[in-house]
Amino acid sequence: MTQTQQKSLISIVFILLIAGL
Q1: Radius of gyration over alpha carbons of the chain, in Å?
Q2: What sign results for the dihedral spanned by CA atoms 15, 11, 8, 2?
Q3: Who wins on pLDDT, 11 or 5?
Q4: 10: which residues sit within 8 A by CB, 6+ positions away?
Q5: How far are the Cα atoms of 2, 7 from residue 10, in angstroms, in the given order?
Q6: CA atoms of 11 and 20, how far apart (whole Å)
Q7: CA–CA dist 14, 8 (Å, integer)
Q8: Does the pTM of the predicted model rise above 0.85?
Q9: Average pLDDT of the segment spanning 1-16
Q10: What is the pLDDT of residue 21?
Q11: HSE, side-chain direction, 13 A CA sphere, residue 20
């Protein structure tokens, strides 16, 4: 997994967490 893909995954998880609150 490249650095860019990892950043995208973290961003998606972060957005999902905020959306869930």
Answers
A1: 9
A2: negative
A3: 11
A4: none
A5: 13, 5
A6: 14
A7: 10
A8: no
A9: 90
A10: 78
A11: 6
Largest CA distance in the chain: 29
C-alpha span between 6 and 16 (Å, rounded): 15
Q: Detail the DSSP E strand segments found in 1-21.
A: none
Q: How confident is the model at residue 2 (pLDDT cuts 50, 70, 90)?
A: confident
Residue 8 to residue 2: CA distance in whole angstroms: 10
Rounded distance between C-alpha atoms, residue 12 and residue 4, angstroms: 12
CA gap 13, 7 in Å, rounded: 10
